[in-house]
Specification:
This protein is α+β, with helices and mostly antiparallel strands. It has helices at 2-27, 73-88, 104-109, 137-146, 203-210, 218-222, 261-271, 278-285, 318-328, 390-398, 410-418, 422-426; strands spanning 38-39, 45-47, 63-68, 94-99, 114-115, 117-121, 127-132, 160-161, 189-192, 197-200, 225-228, 235-237, 242-247, 253-258, 274-276, 303-307, 311-315, 332-337, 344-350, 353-358, 363-370, 376-378, 385-387, 405-408. The protein has three domains: 38-146, Glutaredoxin; 172-285, no CATH class; 290-426, Beta-Lactamase (2-Layer Sandwich), CATH 3.30.450. Helices cover 29% and strands 25% of the residues. The longest helix has 26 residues, at 2-27.
Length: 435
């Protein structure tokens, strides 16, 4: 009986060992014939504790060693970044790539288990830092700076405007409270407050304004709103108006308000379109929202954002488009237009960093203003943008002499969003809350 029990225990142990080995085998990438190094998930990790010294001969300049494999996905995303660094910083630091699936013994000498892994060495060969997972170009350069390594060369000066070149002399009632654009007298909307009134350039800007309020009481807020009668040029209560809703040649909605329904019917006979009540207009205007701050948007005005390779949403501005990655904690792809030329700019993220940027010269403008305490804060969504080059940004700014802010990298714009807490994200772009 005891012998049978012992045999049963041995059999169970054998099966258990076999299961463990099978699971280990299943975790190995199918393309890895040797299997000692596993590809990282998209999440990145870093280690401030230096690992083994560089086993290969050290050059007399700082060195970045990337240990990866040709077929691992995050490694593939690293490849163009490494090539750019190798070209742009030749002679200032060396970039070395080692395929540890093809050279497993070399990988073992570095003491790594997950790829890609980047190891930073100073000019003497001393390891300074190692990072596991995808690492963006701007993140790598920032890490060198943090480590106190001077890569030499003076970067081109970023555009900074801390004071307007000239003041905005437009009358207050001619400037939209929300978008800062000129107010067309025929499409003007007005929100009456206890101490002041807010003038908006269109019903659409009103709905952006409404979606920027924190927990609004809809009936109470809408009772404050007046719109301009298209034919009479006088203000009428928005909730009692009839709206002629059409599309321009780019598919962007056009909205005309009428105090008299008969006048709206006549306008439709001439111009086409659909007649809507205030409730129907509200439903259409609030149907499409920014994936970051939840503001109302027209798709024709917004940045396109693809989440996780399939789900589509929008960003009301370039910076909010990047913020979708922070709000959803997922990788995204952003398609935005150059604020000056309209050229397409594509940004792909991985684990909260910029994985690819097309064109690679693209930059961001961070529109800012000083608050009552003299601190620099965001100037709002309508004063942000992406540009394919600093030259295009400069031309855009020349047409906006009252604009203030600074040029930053798109990687920095993304990093700023990724630092936000859930509580900060919940308040993003809300009136009185945007920082």
């Amino acid at each position: 009986m005891k012998t049978s029990l012992k045999l049963a225990v041995v059999a169970v142990l054998i099966v258990a060992v076999w299961i463990v080995m099978a699971r280990r085998e299943s975790r190995r990438p199918a393309t890895d014939p040797t299997g000692p190094f596993w590809a990282s998930s998209p999440a990145t990790a870093s280690s401030p504790t230096p690992g083994p010294s560089l086993p290969a001969q050290q050059s007399k300049i700082p060195r970045l060693v990337d240990l990866g494999a040709g077929k691992c996905i995050p490694c593939k995303l690293m490849a163009p970044i490494l090539e750019e660094l190798k070209t742009e910083y030749a002679g200032r630091f060396e970039v070395v790539f080692i395929d540890v699936w093809q050279n497993p013994e070399v990988g073992k000498q570095y003491g790594i288990e997950i790829i890609p892994t980047q190891i930073f060495y100073d000019a003497s060969g001393k390891e300074l830092f190692r990072h596991v997972g995808f690492f963006g170009k701007e993140d790598i350069l920032a890490k060198w700076k943090e480590l106190g390594v001077d890569l030499g060369g003076k970067p081109s000066a970023a555009i900074v405007r801390e004071a307007p070149l000239q003041p905005d002399t437009r009358p207050r009632d001619a400037v939209c409270f929300l978008c800062d654009g000129d107010v067309n007298a025929k499409t003007r909307a007005l929100v009456r407050g206890q101490s002041e009134q807010r003038i908006l350039c269109s019903p659409h800007c009103y709905f952006i304004y409404f979606s920027s309020l924190v927990n609004p009481d809809t009936p109470m807020e809408e009772a404050k709103v007046s719109v301009t009668d298209w034919t009479a040029d006088s203000l009428v209560l928005a909730t009692s108006a009839t709206f002629l809703y059409g599309l321009d040649d780019k598919g962007r909605p056009t909205v005309q308000a009428f105090g008299d329904r008969a006048a709206a019917v006549n306008a439709r006979q001439t111009n086409g379109g659909n007649l809507l009540t205030w409730d129907a207009l509200r439903a259409k205007e609030l149907a499409t929202r920014c994936g970051f701050c939840d503001r109302a948007v027209y798709p024709e005005d917004a940045c396109k954002v693809t989440v996780g390779g399939s789900t589509r949403t929008y960003g009301c501005c370039t910076h909010c488009a990047l913020g979708v990655a922070a709000r959803l904690q997922q990788d995204i792809e952003v398609e935005a237009k150059d604020g000056f030329s309209g050229e397409l700019i594509r940004v792909k993220t991985l684990s909260g960093s910029v994985a690819s940027l097309e064109p690679s010269t693209a930059i961001a403008w961070f529109g800012q203003k000083k608050d009552a305490e003299g601190k620099w804060v965001s100037a709002g969504c309508f004063k942000q943008g992406f540009f394919v080059s600093a030259a295009n940004l400069q031309k855009w700014l020349e047409a906006r002499p009252a604009m203030t802010g600074r040029q930053i990298t798109i990687a920095q714009a993304l990093a700023d969003k990724m630092k936000l807490s859930p509580e900060q994200i919940a308040k993003a772009c809300k009136l009185g809350e945007c920082k």
